[in-house]
């Protein structure tokens, strides 16, 4: 798992590193970029095979700070996000970098829950279970939709149509998720972000899975 909560321009060395990671079956998650500094989806998010992340605001809508583009594949909260900081303190940040960290944590949870999935299949599960926003299907603001961790961990997601399909996510040839993607419903979306912030701040994988087991038992 590689989380690139950063943005910049393309370079041969960066491309080589990304391609090497993808060939090694590593999930690469990267920030799409922030306005007004960035005018389009930045690198490494713009490279094929990278899960490019946009940001949503406190109301769950597209965040004004988040750049748009056909490479955006998924969105997550990116406004006023609290996380751990130096000297035992916490800090608040806004931008696609914060959203990317949340998606990276979700990808790690999915791979922990389904260790047999390839990187391509992990990305497919995240995008296929995202909660659709904006125009139906994939769009340049939300990608396939807003991250839904509960659905990503529990939904019955059909496998990719063919193992020969390229694991392209940033480009327009990425595999589309199914219609009506919200198995968890609105109530579970609240749980999603609580769970993600726990994971991002304290690495609470066991806590999240424990919550899920209690729900199944009760």
From TrEMBL:
SUPFAM superfamilies (UniProt xref): Subtilisin-like
* Peptidase S8/S53 domain residues: 6-145
Q: Where are the transmembrane segments?
A: 190-211
For this chain's UniProt record, which GO biological process terms are given?
Answer: proteolysis
What InterPro entries does the record tag this protein with? Answer: Peptidase_S8/S53_dom, Peptidase_S8/S53_dom_sf, Peptidase_S8_subtilisin-like
State if Nucleotide-binding is listed as a keyword: no
Q: Which GO terms describe its molecular function?
A: serine-type endopeptidase activity
| One Pfam family this sequence matches | Peptidase_S8
Q: Which keywords has UniProt assigned to this entry? A: Hydrolase, Membrane, Protease, Serine protease, Transmembrane, Transmembrane helix
What is the similarity comment for this entry?
Answer: Belongs to the peptidase S8 family.
Under what name is this protein listed? Peptidase S8/S53 domain-containing protein
Question: What organism does the UniProt record list as the source?
Answer: Phytohabitans suffuscus
């Amino acid at each position: 798992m590689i989380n690139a909560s950063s943005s910049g321009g393309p370079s041969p060395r960066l491309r080589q590193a990304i391609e090497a990671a993808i060939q090694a079956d590593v999930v690469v998650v990267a920030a799409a970029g922030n306005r007004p500094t960035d005018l389009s989806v930045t690198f490494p998010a713009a490279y094929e095979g990278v899960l490019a992340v946009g940001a949503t605001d406190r109301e769950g809508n597209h965040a004004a700070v988040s750049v748009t583009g056909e490479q955006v594949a998924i969105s997550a909260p990116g406004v006023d996000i609290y996380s751990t900081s130096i000297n035992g303190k916490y800090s608040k940040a806004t931008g696609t970098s914060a959203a990317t960290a949340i998606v990276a944590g979700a990808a790690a949870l999915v791979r922990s829950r389904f260790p047999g999935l390839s990187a391509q299949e992990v990305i497919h599960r995240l995008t296929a279970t995202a909660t659709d926003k904006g125009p139906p299907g994939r769009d340049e603001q939300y990608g396939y939709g807003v991250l839904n961790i509960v659905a990503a961990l529990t939904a019955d997601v059909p496998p990719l149509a063919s193992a020969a399909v390229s694991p392209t996510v940033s480009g327009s040839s990425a595999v589309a998720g199914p219609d009506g993607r919200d198995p968890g419903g609105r109530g579970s979306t609240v749980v999603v972000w609580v769970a993600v912030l726990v994971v991002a701040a304290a690495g609470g994988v066991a806590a999240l899975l424990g919550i899920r087991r209690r729900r199944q038992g009760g």
